[in-house]
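Inputs:
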Amino acid sequence: MMMEMEVAHSGQQDMDLIDILWKQDIDLGARREVFDYNHRQKEHELQKQRELEEEKRLHLLQEQEKALLAQLQLDEETGEYVPRPPPSAPLQSAVTPLEVTQNVNFTEDGDTMSFDECLQLLAETFPVEETENTSVGLDTTVSVPGSNNIMRSPEQPALPSAALSPDPVSPPQGMSPDLEQAWMELLSLPELQQCLGMQIEESLSTTYRLSNSPEVQNPNFPFYPMASLTDGETNTLNVCSEFINTFDGSVPSIVPPDNLNQIEAKAPQLNANFGAESFCDIFYPNTVLEESSGQHGLEGNENTTMSDVTNKPPFTPMDLYSLSPGDAFDSSKANVTTEMPDSDSGISSNTSPNGSSPGKSVYGDGAFGYSDSEMEEMDHNPGSAESDYSEMFSLNFQPDDLQTAVSIPELTGQPQQQEKKPKQQNTDPAEEIGHNTAPFTKDKQKKRSDMRLSRDEQRARALKIPFTVDMIINLPVDDFNEMMSKHQLNESQLALVRDIRRRGKNKVAAQNCRKRKMENIVGLAGELDSLKEEKERLLGEKSQNIKNLKEMKKELNSLYLEVFSMLRDEKGNSYSPSDYSLQQSTDGSIFLVPRIKKTFIKREDNRLSPL
DNA sequence: CGCTTGTGTCATAAG
DNA sequence: GCCTTATGACACAAG
């Protein structure tokens, strides 16, 4: 352990050095994380965790298969497995058990079910699929008290109401009473609990995150978690999957053992609406995240909105838009000492405040890109200066910020277990491409746009605009208008929203324009090069042609003289080339023409006899 | 301190 | 006429 700490310590020094190099835009030849000992260690742990998970999964599958086979019998004639004839109290699933769905009507008389039956029920209810990385929609990782040992598979199909149920042990909504009873029974099975224990551990935290929406990439977006579900498929609320996918079982390693106990102590207080603040609180109870006041508001808001959602399972985009989070910010007062602003890490404005950029005051570094005039303008706002900043921090608070919190243990001497989520990009497909693999400088460039959005967000915040900047900018005009129509906005709010939309779109347009311009310049430069080559080639060709022409003229002249010298008049005298010339008519006949009497000869052409 | 570069924004034209 | 997109021009920050 001490060794590990030492390695981690020297690793931290290395990381500091790498940080410095990185800040200087020195290409390290690999992403920064590659050099991070903690990162590598975590990857190792993740690997182990995955293997363990896979093992468990296979075990579960084997059990399932056994359960399946137990319900089948071998047909001696065909060699096929066929369903067993129903027992006295048959399951309705006289069909192939694989076809059993959640709608199956459990009429089992006995109050007990075999483990295999339970497993089968589980398998049928929550088919184990290879979809761990394909979670869609709003992911809600539900914290579950260890004693209850309730888990929801990340692969769980759409069960939004269940996922949002305040009571984590409640069976999914819509389950028939019998099925519900079976469900409860299943959950109480010690084998199952053991089998699934690990996943329960993994679910000891909660984060709301959107994994399949473009807005998710935006730093601001997750602050309106519900508001970004803009399509039908995101209705699905997957439990745990995001956190598991993202941290992939790394939570136990993140959490210091001391804190784990506290987690267990606190866990029962948690519910499905467990917010980001709670997350931080639980994992780092010593860390006071005072921006949580804003989060409290949000949490409270979410409590209502989530239950609303629960009551209205079929989402429509407008349902989501109408989940106005704006009011939640009213009470937000961020503590700038915990919610560090842009650390110039370039990764995002939410990177670790682990002292990687010391010496920067909170308000320093250009005050997040605010121009003086803008700062002045902002200072004229009622809630200016500090509150504005805090509001902005709140607006920027997002799951990535959780990583900020996650990295806090480093300050307290804990090994840093920071893990960067793969950044996604939004809106502009052209921008999206390659951003994950972009050099660090790209990330740094992105920073400014983030700050810009913050500026607009702050304006939006100041006027209590109940939408995210991303929504304002990126929604199709119809959806945008619909969204606007659902809220009573005053003139200034309307103007600001339209300005934000215009600016946002124009910003993207300007980026595209510049990109195109650069491409044009590069293309034109290439074209210029090729044209120069062509010119050189043509000039060479031309000189060659001139040379050839001269040669041919010379040759022709000698031939002409040769022919001319062979001409004789009636007396056998030769013609003088200075007095006569040979000319060819259009029909191919050759004439001997006296040079002096050209005009006359031309008129007398017909009197001359062809040669 | 001036220059260059990158970016956001505005005004305007065009689709 | 409204909206989006494209682009020149300008301002600003950072290197």
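Residues 115 and 189 of chain A are 7 Å apart (CA to CA). Flag for discussion at group meeting.
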